[in-house]
Amino acid sequence: MKVLMMPCGIGMGHVSRCIALAEKLKERGANVVFASYGSGYEMLVKSENYETIKLPDIKFYGNGGELDIKYTAKKSIDAPFIFLKSIYNESKIIKRFKPDIVVADSHYSVPITCKVLGIPCIMVTNELTLDFAELYPDDKTIEYLENGLKRFITDVSNQCNAILIPDIEDSIEVPPKLKDMTIFTGPFLKKTPDNLENKIKIRKKYGFNENDKIILVTVGGSDFGKRLLRLIYNASEYIECNKIVMITGPQIESNFIPDSDKIIKKEFLEDIMEWMKLSDLAISLAGHTTTMELASLGVPNILVPIDNHPEQFKNALNMEKYGISLVKKIKELNTAGFIEDINKLLNDNDLERKVEITRRKFSEYKGTEEAVNIILKHAESKKQYFNEQILL
I need a surface site. Which of 155, 179, 263, 371 has the fewest CB within 10 A? Predict the structure, then answer.
């Protein structure tokens, strides 16, 4: 069985959850190859666990923790060319690898390529609608762009064999046209929380003391996280913890963060769920994969969505309702206020009940296993169809 995985390469979350699927597929005897770009591609290459093919880059623009949608749209005037170039490259890869099925994570040229080549395609996504027009209520151009993209995403997704949502039931809005083919599987996790060692054993494994107070900071590998990392470094002296672990991602050079006995700098962590579990608090941008890992483990957290990024705000607000997340806007953060928020959560003894409720809620799902079963079912259907054609 051959499976080709083509995740969006912006940030590391799409690739991370696809790796969770890939590991389980390998256990089931599948041969898995990846194709991606950006941070995702760099993450795959550095892990050296899978054959990885480079796809054309897609870039979003902004600074200071803010996504500039209007500038991104302006700079994307050649988007149709990049889209066609993507289809061309994808078709070359598919023809060479000859997969039984392709899994696309939020990569919307792939279903078209697969449809043309007659290859089953599964779409993985946590967003089927867009809401960025509300950020520019007086700009009709942005409104038209959003409406066009919504129709495009719906029409393209409708070409897939199935759409998998790596979240719990009814966590996102699903267009009526896609309801019958959309499945809420639950999060795709590299490790089942119940199968992880306990917090004390994991701390001992990585050289931490049992009673240390530890904060994990992760910014998903994009430049949007630099401002958050600087803010935490500036506040670090007054944060009531022993260690702060900062994960920068492959596209952020950590040398802008001065060395400190209190701060541990990491570019990438293979076992990030273990590092989340050993932590008392996580501080992060609001990428979907990260929020699902934190919810499944029940780790108290502060989420700082990228400004003007509707999907990240949705992710953060969904987490807020579980009672273990504090959502802050990057523009409103200042060092003194951030120190107060962090120290308050570190010393909040009432969080444990909410943590346990959240853990139990997410433990009802076995997302990775269910997704792999669906992928293999559709791949087997393709093989069975071609075998029947040969017999005819």
Answer: 179
Report the 10 Å Cβ neighbour count for 289.
Answer: 25
**Neighbour-count burial for 133-159, b at 16+ CB within 10 Å, e otherwise:** bebbeeeeebeebbeeebeebbebbeb
Within a 10 A sphere around the Cβ of 387, how many other Cβ atoms?
10
Indicate the helix (H) or strand (E) that contains 293. Answer: helix 288-297
More confident of the two residues 269 and 168: 168
CA dist 153 and 337 (Å) reads: 40
From residue 163, alpha-carbon distances to 15, 74, 106, 348 in Å are: 17, 30, 10, 39
Contacts for 377-384 with beta carbons within 8 Å, 24 or more apart? Answer: 378/101, 378/120, 378/122, 378/161, 378/162, 379/1, 379/3, 379/100, 379/101, 379/120, 380/100, 381/120, 382/100, 382/101, 382/119, 382/120, 383/100
d(CA 306, CA 66): 5
Helix, strand, coil share (%) of the chain residues, nearest 5:
50, 15, 35
- Side by side, the strands of the sheet bearing 121-124 are 52-54, 31-36, 2-7, 101-105, 121-124, 162-165, 182-184
Kindly give, in sequence order, each residue whose CB lies less than 8 Å from that of residue 347, ignoring residues fewer than 6 positions away: 240
Q: Nearest-5° angle of CA 252, CA 255, CA 257?
A: 95
| Strand ranges for 37-126 from DSSP E | 52-54, 62-63, 66-67, 101-105, 121-124
Q: Is 157 helix (H, G, I), strand (E, B) or coil?
A: helix
Question: How far is residue 213's CA from residue 279's CA, in Å, rounded to a whole number?
Answer: 7
Longest Cα pair distance anywhere in the chain, in angstroms? 74
Q: How far is Cα 138 from Cα 60, in angstroms, rounded to an integer? A: 22
Length of the chain: 392
138 with 31: CB under 8 angstroms? no
Taking the model in full, what pTM does it have? 0.85
Give whole-number Cα distances, 102 to 20, 21, 157, 165, in Å: 15, 12, 13, 16
Judge whether residue 348 has pLDDT over 60: yes
58: which 2 tokens?
A: 């897609």
